[in-house]
Design brief:
6 helices; 4-stranded mixed sheet; 36% helix; 2 domains; disordered C terminus; Double Stranded RNA Binding Domain
């Protein structure tokens, strides 16, 4: 099975894209010159073969992401093929069900998965999401509605949520003078 990869320049920076005929496996942020080589090398290690640049899998992913950033798409219609544990895949599936322009807490996701005390485990799986934006881990916030960590950087999380029209809660000490 051939793995394809590509990149896409977006308002939140350069993205690394990858997938196979089974679906999208990676959408990640690239911050430096060596990130492309590092991502391609990681794919080669994971799959045991040299990935190929381009391919129809990446073309459709690029098209839908471009539409998202142009505010012409709210939901992605792509087959997904992330690699992870059963728990991680359950969390990622739950993330995929968060509607555009809405946020939920880690605790809410844990409760939806039938494990209300597993908010930290949800956070850990959220942080390992290999398909950023398409699997919208940026839509998960703290229980008080404030921003929490984001593997792609808080500036990107803020931008993505603002792009979707989400009004963010102020940080707890934001009103202190």
């Amino acid at each position: 099975m051939t793995t394809y990869y590509d990149t896409l320049d977006t308002p939140v920076g350069l993205l690394f894209l990858a997938g196979t005929e089974h679906g999208v496996s990676h959408v990640g942020f690239m911050d430096g010159e060596g990130d492309l080589l590092a991502n391609v090398t990681r794919l080669e290690f994971e799959t045991g073969e040299t990935p190929v640049r381009g391919g129809p899998e990446c073309h459709e992913l690029r098209r839908q992401l471009t539409e998202y950033f142009a505010s012409k798409r709210r939901d992605f219609e792509l087959p997904l093929a992330p690699t992870g544990t059963d728990w991680q895949r359950k969390v990622w599936h739950a993330l995929s069900r968060i509607p555009h322009g809405e946020t939920v807490s880690y605790g809410t996701i844990a409760t939806r998965l039938g494990r209300p005390s597993a908010s930290r485990a949800v956070g850990a799986a959220n942080g390992r999401n290999p398909i950023a934006i398409v699997v919208p881990c940026h839509r998960v916030v703290g229980s008080d509605g404030t921003l929490t960590g984001y593997a792609g950087g808080m500036h990107r999380k803020q931008w993505l949520l603002a792009h979707e029209g989400v009004r963010l809660a102020l940080e707890p000490n934001a009103l202190a003078v």
